[in-house]
Design goal:
six-stranded mixed beta sheet; alpha/beta; globular; 15 helices; binds (2S)-2-hydroxy-2-methyl-3-oxobutanoic acid; 47% helix
Amino acid sequence: RSALRTLSALPAAGIVAALPRIARAAEFSYKYGNNLPLTHPLNIRAQEAADRIAKETKGRVEIKIFPNNQLGGDTDMLAQVRSGGIEFFTPSALVIATLVPVAAINAVGFAFSDYSQVWAAMDGKLGAHVRGAIAKSRLYAFEKMWDNGFRQTTSSKAAVANAKDMDGLKIRVPVSPLSISMFKGLGAAPASLQFSEVYSALQTKIVDAQENPLPIIQVAKLFEVQKFCSLTNHIWDGYWFIANGRAWDALPDDLKTIVARAINDAGMQQRDDIRKLNESVVGDLQAKGLTINRPAADSFRAKLRESGFYGEWKGRFGPEAWALLEGAVGKLA
Ligand code: X2X
């Protein structure tokens, strides 16, 4: 109130001089929601991209970030980005697959053996195929996928050394039909929960185990509620940076170019952040009290073959997508 009184007392020239300090509303003011803590490289690089976009568009495009499930869990954010309640979202491949089934193809169990295979596929024909499918849902997927990582298994009960140790394991998985199918195939008792509920579900022992890449186990402090971490590397998972189709189409071409370049560049840097983090995070997690073990993949793969997992998902994804996956990683089933 006192500021207003001061303003009204100013001569006209003074008011004009004060105006530039009052933030002008951006022409395109967009919201971006995600499910990760602020300290995860995804949020750090996304903020850099938003700052770059504000600068390069001279304030015409403003992106406000809502991290850490502030706008609801993944299922809510996916609904919001479809309706236009938010304009940007980064669902994991597992999560967007509830809307675009073929998007889960990169998460087929034990398909990728390393990052050179991952990026060749996702920056190549397999990624293009998935982006095409996403576009059919009136969502725009930026070209460069961001890294989540190879998913690892943690538990409060015992280490997982081979497929037998999955027997009856009460494990949280994302809201993802492929994850449920895979862990059932391994003999576990999986339950789908949104990431927003994982920490408390582990803390209250609703489930004993969960699976996520190491950087997430670190930044979401899951080591506080878990004792064992088994480096199963069972799924490679990434985030699609997506935009509501109408919001994307509303941007003039020059702004589209600026936004896409900033987001794709930030994604490349985020991949590198995760790569570096992967080199140090095992030591950090051990220091926080997690017991780490490195099981071989053979018994898990054999169990999945036996249970018919690969055959079933080959059918569900269809021959075209499956051929693209096998073209990138070799024969699976
Ligand atoms: O929910 C998870 O486990 C997470 C954070 O990895 C995803 O976004 C799928």
